[in-house]
Design brief:
Number of domains: 2
CATH architecture of the largest domain: 3-Layer(aba) Sandwich
CATH superfamily of the largest domain: Peptidoglycan recognition protein-like
Shape: globular
Oligomer: single chain
Distance between the termini: 22 Å
Structural class: alpha/beta
CATH topology of the largest domain: Lysozyme-like
Strand content: 5-15%
Helix content: 25-40%
Length: 207
Amino acid sequence: MLVMHYTGMPTARSAIELLKSPQAKVSAHYVVDEDGTIYNLVPEAMRAWHAGISCWRGQRQLNDASIGIEIVNPGHEWGYRPFPDAQMCAVLELAQGVIARHSIEKRDVVAHSDIAPNRKQDPGELFDWPWLAEHGVGVWTEEFAPPGDLREDLSTIGYDIGLAEKDVILAFQRHFLRNHLSGLADMPTAKRASALRRLIDAADNRP
């Protein structure tokens, strides 16, 4: 899997120093600065400590099965802001390479909040998932479909529905319904989840 994070710290330097510190017990394979500079901190063949307690599509402990990209942004705590074009272009190029090297499915390009919705909210609702998906990184739809069973749809997409419903729904909305952060099992959320599930099902059944 490929997991996108934001650093959630005041500066790039402070984030990189933390990620390099053995005492911090946190690390990532890559850091992408706001000017597009890419830092490779951990070889892709090695395990990095970026996912923590996590789950996606029934698989847990995702540090064992994922590449982590930390994207420099102060995050919701320190002044969350849009991700610059140069940074997004660097993320795209880096992600395309990671996906090709590890044969990662589009549906397994995820946010930290997707795999740990009860703990995390990064990279957040300002991250340009639609643009990445246009270029082959991740899955996206603008469609709404007749609603089905929202819990079942979220589980099929990959979410751990054993967690608090509001946390899971808000994580889904931060990724796939970014202008509607209600945290509620409402009609727009159910319709978008249904459309996304149909898209994923169609991809799974493609010859």
